[in-house]
Amino acid sequence: MSIQSKIGSLLAVLFLVLIATSAAILKTVVEPEFADLDRENTIHRSQQIQNTLNAELKDLKIYSSDWGVWDDTYEYMVKKDPDFIAGSAPDDTFLLTDIHMMAFYDMNNDIVWGRWFDKEADSFTDLDITFVDAKTRSVMSPQAVVANSGMAGFAQTTRGPMMIAAHPILKSNQDGPARGIAITGRFLDQNRMEKIAKDLNAEFNTVVSLDQSISEGQHLPLDVISIPLQPGAIGLFDDQENGMLYSYIDIIAMNDVKLMRLVHPHQMEILSKGQFAISTVLQLFAAFFAIALIFIVFSLHRIVLNPLGTLRRKINAMKRSETLSTETIPETQSNELLLALESFDAMESEIRQHQSDLEDKVRDRTHWLQETNDRLEEEVIERQRTEESLRAAKVEAEQASHSKSEFLATMSHEIRTPMNGIVGMTNLMLESQLDEEQLDYTNSIKSSADHLLLLINDILDISKLDAGVSKLEISDFSLTEVIESVTSTQKPNALSKNLTLLSEMDPGLPDWVRNDPTRLRQVLFNLVSNAIKFTDEGHIKISVTPLKPRSGNVQWIKFSVEDTGIGISAPDQKRIFERFTQADGSSSRKHGGVGLGLSIAKHLSQQMKGEIGLESTLGNGSTFWFTVPFEIPGSDQKQNPNSSRDTEQNKPVSETLMKQITETVALSANKQLQVLIVEDNKINQMLLTKFFTKRGHVSDIAFNGLEALEYLKHKDPDIILMDIQMPEMDGIEATKAIRMLSGAKSKIPIIAVTANAMKGDRNTYIAAGMDDYVAKPIDFDQLMKIIRKNVPAEKL
User: Fold this and answer.
1) 207 in helix, strand or coil?
2) What are the beta bridge partners of residue 504?
3) Which H/E stretch holds residue 338?
4) Which residues pair with 476 in a beta bridge?
5) Is the pTM of this model over 0.85?
6) How far is CA 715 from the centre of its chain?
7) Does position 293 have pLDDT exceeding 50, yes or no?
8) pLDDT tier, 15 (very low <50, low <70, confident <90, very high otherwise)
């Protein structure tokens, strides 16, 4: 196939595609618009009919109001003077005003006077009360008309459909009381419909029933007659087969019965004319495209194909004789092709020169690539050595981190176990009868043990922060309870130095917020503890204020701890939050501590997405502050009914023990707890046994998990205190075995009492089947709180 044929075929296909696309666009976009215009026109006609009927009702309502608000009518309802009727309401008057019914009803819904037109007799007759059904009479009762200041609507009468309007009979100044209602009516018959159609220049059919429509030869689709329609709505039926549209409305009587359906048939003339226009446009397009195709093919042959033939002959001649043909291309056809042909010779020499240059560059490039490849191979080998070294270093670091974690866990357990004995025995000694010197010695032991325990906790916290395993536990909590727990815990320490510990909270702040209450309490505890440590006289004040206005459900809050202590110099303020740093770092410093509290506070503040800082002058006290964003819970939180009890339970051991009994309590058998202590350390066994004995409860000892299982074969304790690391069978294995027992024994509460206090330990014990967890050294207030939560109240 020649180029001319190919281009001609391509252009023909292109033109056909354009014509088909144009036809599709006209068919899918333009033609529906014509159909929509037909539909809008059809609906508009029904709207006109609907508006005309509403106007008729409005006119009838005005006519009834003219009779109702007339002093003569008002007087007639009392006197019933026949001269008034004869002079003011003769039958001829109603015919002239196109009124077919006129009546006066008293307030008892009885006809005082009424006349209406008899179409068969062509004269007016007296109106009977039964001219409409009872429901219509109820709807248009005098009371309803008076309440609505008039009514109008459609009704089915004994002489046919009618438009009816009513108005209260009042004085001309609208005063009452109403003495009845004036009712006027106009038949909604075929004559009225023909008049409306003539006035609107619109055709419509009155459909009362399917039989009536068929008998009158209306030839309407069945759906147009039978499809239900909402009151006041306009229906539309599209009869595409016959090119017709039907819009229709229902006339609903006041008793909610459909009187008739008015149907407007509309031939889709706009769509037909539009389709004819589209067809004409497509024919014009096709004619235009055909002429354009012929013109383009002819021009292509003259301008392009002829010069290309000449150019091809010149190239063939050059290949045979290496000289150009003498045939020329007329400038009027394609001067560009002539220039291309003249450039062939120059192009050939340039190609040869470029080929030679390219070969030289390829040789140079090949040499350079070989050298580069050698260097890359050396670099790959070196990189592999580096990666192997990095992998080895990573393995070594992971092993070191694992060893560190194991060391911390072991040290935590090994230190806390004897600490539990020291703290517990000290507490038991404080409960016993001691003289003043013994009490001083015992309190010194307890103070040193508490300080050592705080130091252990700080080291574990800083280790967790370094390892990245410290996670926030988000929950809803009361700010007031957190502040009270910190102040109640630190108040004994402040009182021991004759210091005043105050707290102040902005009343505009919400009490219930959402964040990590434990971390917030820990930061406040560290800051207050430092303030007490470095203050010898005066006061410490905790202030809680909004940092900035609430935004949505987020409230930024600023916590400040102000003291009247020694203050901090400007150079020391820059490094005060570093680890193992104190303002006085000399060996002769007055205040102790390892300098971890503020570093932990800084890490926790940042973990809660806040900031921490201080304001201080040497010798004039300090104010440490930190900010935290809190979420405000969606619903109002109620005060926890146990909050007062919890606050009391969260007090320090030293303060709580002062309130505890020093004599053994005797309880009745039904009040005694039966406690099984599963513990391999004899000091801890004695400590727990003494604790429960002094409170009147009974405890038994099992040295390991196997003995605990043997014990459960014979007795049913109320609760089990389970150590974790024990010989023969540890606490986790024992717990799992107990949970596999049958009956009530498998549901006995089990509390883990262990020196393991690393992150994740509690979750491990709960997953094994334990109910709760207490860390050693044991906080007996916390232990009793957990026991209360897990045993019946009557046992405590």
Assistant:
1) strand
2) 543
3) helix 331-431
4) 514
5) no
6) 54
7) yes
8) confident
